[in-house]
Amino acid sequence: MSEEISKQRNPRAFRIFPRFRRSRRSRRVPARQNYDKDCYYDYPIKDGLLCYPKCKAGYNNYGQGPVCWAKCPPRTTNIGFSCQKHTYGRGVGKPLSSCKSKMEKNGLLCYPKCKKGYYGVGPVCWQKCKSGYTDDGALCRKPLHVYGRNTKSCPWYNKCGLFGSTCGKKCKKGYVNDGCTCRQPLHVYAKKTYGRGVGVPLSCGSKEEQSGALCYPPCKSGYYGVGPLCWSHCSGETTDTGANCLRESYGRGWGKSLSCFSFSRDNLKGADISEIVSFMKGAKDQVLTKATCLGLWEKSRKTMNYLRSFAKCTSSWHTMVFSISGTVSVLLSDGVEIGIAVDLKKDKAVCYEQTCKGFNLDASVGIAVNYGWFRSLEDIPGKATVVFGGVEIPNTEKGVSFASVINSDNEYIGTLGTRGLGVGLSPLPFDVGGASCNTPKNRIIEFTPLL
């Protein structure tokens, strides 16, 4: 009977410990978050026309292309490879004049206070003279002093009271009766002394801080003082170089094409790069003219049509850019670029000329063909910073690279792909660098493109 009962299900136990039932929802793959819809799960960051892995904590994800740059600390301004510190003035400063607690100023030094009954002169504490004594430096002196004694009560035969019973007024305490006079004897004794150390330099007050030989008001939170200026701190992945915070960086690969763009070699056949380079070499006039612009446009129309295939990936950007640049570099680079920018929505175009100065890891002479997208035609004129990286055949300038363009307001305004031609001395299979470029408004010519 007991065995049958043990085999029966205990309804109370079932209520207390209900059977766990798996939910189909627990097997559902978590939704992919924090990545662009045109990119991939492992390459979630869309930057220009490519997708990149996320940068690690403390680094910027966007506007950097293949390089992750450290974020600028608070109270600094991003100026490209470094962050400029913010500063403000705190006055001209005051001379050192204070001593710490339980110390006293003597000359230009601070000493421990002397014990009671002593006073300090430099590193020595000297005993104070007793009342009635004159301080003669290392000695205390009570001077000789004589005054006439009142003897009116003395008889005529003992006028000064020298004989017999004493008569007349008594002398003051500490004086000797000499008859008709009272005399204070001369008394001299040496002071006692002890040393109190060599002293320490003067310092600033409790509500001041020292910088050099002057005292200044303390800087507000987040700043430190150097002389009359307060400077913001460097922090995070940056290195303090004085007026700036140098940003740390590392590479994150060359990225993947956007998932919305299907790339094939047939696209490149429409871009007859050699024909364009030959046109630029044969141009007799070195001055940017409308004729030069139209000639470059005719030679680059095939390439522009190739670039239009990116349009579905750049719904907010609609300005195509195509340019030819020539550069001479020995670590420091100097180059000139002539290019065309076309607004597909407005059917407007400009031809422009810009100059660039920067650096890279090579000594070379070469020509590069650049193609890509800008945010708008209004971003073409003015100053901009270009950061690039790519691969190339060692000891040549033949290679492919990608560049990000940032304007003077630290806004990401463009992305470019580059095909290089030329000769170089670097044995490295890659090249990275940056440049500061300027496109003056007087070097821009507007024209109407025929797409």
TrEMBL record:
PANTHER family: LYSM DOMAIN-CONTAINING PROTEIN (PTHR34859:SF2), UNNAMED PRODUCT (PTHR34859). This is Uncharacterized protein. It comes from Paramuricea clavata (Red gorgonian).
